[in-house]
């Protein structure tokens, strides 16, 4: 009994010592922060936890900045994809006509409908995509250096594809909410959901359709993300290699390669983006059935009823959205990486 009491007392004394040391350390950090805030901030940034978290934080921040700039273009792209659904002919809107229609129905700020969902998507999707990619590359880089070689193109491509697919799966609920909010204005006024925010949209979708509905269109979303990352990575690398011997400055080489990569990323991913939009926008009809049973069914019905070229409707708008978004994201992420290294 005495032995047990002694052990308990020893543990209590040890805990007291640890608590006092922690309190002293806290006071020391507080004093350092008070005397030299810059040094304290640098010290915090270089803690192991922050070094691991920074790629994710910087990536998400960069994506949110880019989305704030590109949101109106994304809004127009979604409206173009949903116009004339189910008919081979149907209306043939242009980016200008869609913009006029949106403004005529409300106000200029309606072009930013779904911005909260777009920002949430970037906070989740781009945070995960760039964070995973950076983490994968560091691991592969360490392994390659250990083996006395450089990282191969296939390893870079594999990292990009994997990071894009994982991030797309995690970010699908926010992407779904974004599509629902942007397409809501196409419905008759009496049928509109009039979502107040991304939280309101997700909660109402879960109540009426179940939590599983958050991952509607997840398959094409993941495939689209992988196709997008493949187009950006493979063609950016190839274009930059081909432009190395030209008279263009390094900055212009990077911008030109980004534009070329943006084209191929758009070309490969737009059909999947189109199907993703259709699947995420759909709702059950009076008979309780959904218009499409999945990605393959949607592809088949669009080809049969609307023609294969319908997948590329809004390509110019999609490209104008993809290329600047990628460039802004990379520039901001690079700058954030520079100031936090």
Automatic annotation (TrEMBL):
GO cellular component: mitochondrial inner membrane
Record-stated family: Belongs to the mitochondrial carrier (TC 2.A.29) family.
Pfam families linked to this entry: Mito_carr
Gene3D superfamilies the record matches: Mitochondrial carrier domain
Main localization of the protein described in the UniProt heading: mitochondrion
Subcellular location: Mitochondrion inner membrane
UniProt repeat feature Solcar, residue ranges: 50-139, 151-242, 249-339
Lineage of the organism: Eukaryota, Fungi, Dikarya, Ascomycota, Pezizomycotina
Protein name: Mitochondrial 2-oxoglutarate/malate carrier protein
Transport as UniProt keyword: yes
InterPro entries cross-referenced by the UniProt entry: MCP, MCP_dom_sf, MCP_transmembrane, Mito_Metabolite_Transporter
Residue ranges of the TM segments: 318-338
Origin superkingdom: Eukaryota
Keywords annotated in UniProt: Membrane, Mitochondrion, Mitochondrion inner membrane, Repeat, Transmembrane, Transmembrane helix, Transport
GO BP term (any one): transmembrane transport
């Amino acid at each position: 009994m005495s032995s047990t009491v002694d052990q308990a007392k020893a543990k209590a004394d040890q805990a007291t010592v640890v608590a006092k040391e922690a309190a002293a350390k806290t006071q020391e950090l507080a004093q350092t922060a008070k005397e030299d805030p810059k040094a304290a901030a640098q010290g915090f940034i270089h803690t192991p936890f922050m070094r691991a978290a920074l790629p994710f934080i910087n990536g998400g921040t960069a994506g949110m900045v880019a989305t704030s700039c590109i949101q109106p273009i994304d809004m127009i792209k979604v409206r173009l994809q949903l116009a004339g659904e189910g008919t081979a002919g149907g209306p043939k809107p242009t980016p200008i006509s869609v913009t006029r229609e949106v403004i005529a129905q409300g106000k200029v700020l309606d072009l930013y409908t779904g911005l909260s969902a777009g920002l949430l998507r970037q906070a989740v999707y781009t945070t995960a995509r760039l964070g995973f990619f950076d983490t994968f590359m560091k691991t592969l880089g360490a392994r390659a250096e250990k083996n006395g070689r450089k990282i191969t193109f296939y390893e870079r491509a594999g990292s990009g594809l994997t990071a894009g697919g994982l991030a797309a799966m995690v970010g699908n609920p926010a992407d779904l909410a974004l599509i629902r909010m942007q397409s809501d204005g196409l419905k008759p006024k009496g049928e509109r959901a009039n979502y107040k925010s991304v939280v309101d949209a997700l909660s109402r979708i879960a109540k009426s359709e179940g939590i599983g509905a958050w991952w509607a269109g997840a398959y094409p979303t993941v495939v689209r993300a992988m196709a997008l990352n493949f187009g950006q990575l493979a063609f950016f690398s190839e274009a930059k290699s081909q432009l190395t011997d030209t008279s263009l400055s390094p900055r212009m080489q990077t911008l030109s390669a980004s534009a070329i990569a943006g084209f191929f990323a758009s070309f490969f991913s737009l059909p999947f983006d189109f199907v993703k939009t259709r699947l995420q926008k759909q709702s059950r009809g009076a008979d309780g059935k959904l218009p499409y049973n999945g990605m393959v069914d949607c592809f088949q019905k669009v080809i049969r009823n609307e023609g294969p070229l319908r997948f590329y409707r809004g390509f110019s708008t999609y490209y104008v959205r993809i290329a600047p978004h990628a460039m802004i994201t990379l520039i901001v992420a690079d700058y954030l990486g520079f100031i936090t290294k």
